[in-house]
Amino acid sequence: MSHNNFDLAAAAREEMIEHGFDPDFPQAVEQQVTEIAANPPATNGAVRDLRQLLWSSIDNDSSRDLDQIEVAERVDGGIRIMVGIADVDFRVKTGTPVDQHAAKNTTSVYTGIRTFSMLPEQLSTDLTSLNEEADRLAVVVEMVVDADGEVSRTNISRATIRNRAQLTYNGVGPWLEAKAAAPAKVAASPDLQAQLKLQDEAAQALRQARSKMGALNFDRVEPEVLIVDGKVQGIGTRQKNRAGELIEDFMIAANGVMARAFSDAKVSSIRRVVKTPERWPRIVDLAKQHGVNLPQQPDARALNVFLQKRRSEDPAHYSDLSLAVIKLMGPGEYVLLRPGDPGEGHFGLAVHDYAHSTAPNRRFSDLVTQRLIKALMAKQSPSYAEGQLASIAQNCTLREDAARSVERAMHKRIAAVALRNQIGKTFSAVVTGVTPKGVFVRILNPPAEGLLAQGADGVDVGDRLQVKLLSTNPQRGYIDFGR
To answer: What predicted TM-score, i.e. pTM, was given to this entire model?
Structure first.
């Protein structure tokens, strides 16, 4: 098969199987989805009706599995934020075929060419998705955010809600940053404009408060595959913007409220932690190259001050530095937290209490957290024993690592296809990995990672280089660079 006709979708499915995922839904799952669609379960317990509020969602242009919507109002002492999270548990019961399949895969995998969703699409993009103008059950996390970004007067409840406006980061972000006109839905509604400005005000207060605590604000340049008629035309970049930050800030705050609810009730839960960075000494070395001395022990605040200084002094190269520090910090993991256990916290977010809860359509850990919080609200015994939670946490960590491997392998294949006409060209690159398998570099425009096949001696993560593209092989996902 020539590189021009390489079947990326088939490669993605093979990659899933190779990494231990089940990319296809068994017949029992399809059968259950048909039954769920035909016989919606009855609502039980206390459910508020909050459909009259001006809820909206902000997500990627292509997102169809909407997990989270937001609304805000100004109150005494600050801004009340309500985050509505899709009540997936309402439709997907523990131990059913759909649940068992989700428990095995634990996450949706985004390969750039095809999405392998954790739940069948009829659920994740319809019945359990917070779609525009659809009435949906949700778990609602409320909090009041004051001018200093302090969170108080929190509450978690169940409600029926209705998304009034499905919006996108690309539409809302530039408008919030005063760089572009409002997208059509926002322009048509003064109430929605005011609503989003209010949400943005609260989000910025939350962000500044976390920044003071040492939250690391990276410039992540995310690759965006440009596909026309099923063929890869190139790779663009997606920059983080103010709308993305807004959703991230509310997600982090809601996850914190959720985690503290378990702690206060002395209930075991699954937490998301990022321990202290794996390669702090190398981060110290990188800072020293810029004339900054970081403490010998990991210190999020000191690192944040250094990063913000670099961002203002050299914005053009800040994404290189961000990428290097992200790689040196190492990935997060899921852990069981029992009542009374000292929490490890999340180094990069500078938060101590963090339970993933806002994406139950896409992550099994969030669905489990949802079941635990609903049991707590209903004053029922927890849905899972501690031993079950520990093994779920471990499996979620392993599967998330595997999903990252699939996504990385597929991105390399897609990049190999996109770059096949640029052999011999020189690119600016940053070293992202030094492993027994070799030294890996990432070029930033277009964003692609490959092996430094020539001239790799003496380099380390974070070094900036000029590299020449030597060869690409989509079949094997190889991109080779030299110096």
So the answer is: 0.89
